[in-house]
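REQUEST FORM: STRUCTURE PREDICTION
Request ID: SP-0412
Submitted by: Lab K.M.
Chain count: 1
Length (residues): 247
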Amino acid sequence: MDYNTLPVDFPTFGIEHNLYLIVCLLIWIIFAFIGRNFLNKSQQQKVAIYLAVFTIFQEIIFDIFQIYIKDFNIQQDLSLHMCGISLFLSSYALWKKNQTAFELSYFWGFAGALQGMLTPDPARWPYGEISIFWSFMSHGIIILNVVWLIWVDGMRCRKGSLLNTFLVTNAAVFIIGIINNLLGENANYWFICEKPGGDSPFLVGEWPYYLFTFEIAAFVVMLIIYLPMWFVVDRSLKGTLPLSETT
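STATUS: Completed
RESULT:
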C-alpha cells in the first residue's frame, strides 16, 4: 500500500472532526475524574508513570512506522515542533513532578496542542486515517497529561510563569531557527520558515509577517491561559485553596 496517496477529507468542525474532539474531551474528563476520586496516591503515581511511558512509546511507534514505509524525513519528522517537545516535557512532569516542565507543558499544551486539534492542517496528514488518528492521539495526550497534573497531582503554575514561558518560547524559536537552517531548506520546525496550513485565526499574512502577528497572538493566548492559574494561586496564597505544589 502506498500510504502517501491516501486522501484526506477532513473539514474543520465537520462531523469527523467534532467526533474526535468530543471523544478527546470525554477521555480528559473521565480519566482525571477517576484518578482524582477513585485512586489512592500510590495508584495515581503508577498511572502517571504509565501515561508518561505511553506518551513516549506512541511517538516512537509512529517514527518506526515512518521508517518502515521509508518515509521518515529528518527535516520534517523529528520531534522538534512545540507539540513534539511538549510530549517529552509532559512525560517528565508526570514522572518527576518537575515544576518547570509542568509550566511549559501547560502553556504549550493549551496554546499549541489544543490549537492543533481545533484548527488542524490536513496537508500534514500524508497517511489518511492513520495520520488523523495519530495526530489527535499525540496532541490529545499532551492535554490529558496536563489535566492529570492539574486535577490529580494538584500542580499549579507559579506567579511569573507566564513571562518565564514567553521568554523560554522565544529562546526556543531562536534555537529551532538555527536547527532549521542546519537541516536545510525543507526544514520548517515551529513553522518558522513557512506558514502552515489550517484555519488558525492567529496566522495573518505571509512570511515573515505572520511571525509577528503570531508572536502577539501567542502572548495574548498565553495570558488568557494563565488567568485561571493566577486566580487560583492568588487565592492559595491567602490560605483559601491548599495546593500540593506551587513552587
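NOTES: The first helix runs from residue 15 to 38.
Reviewed by: T.R.
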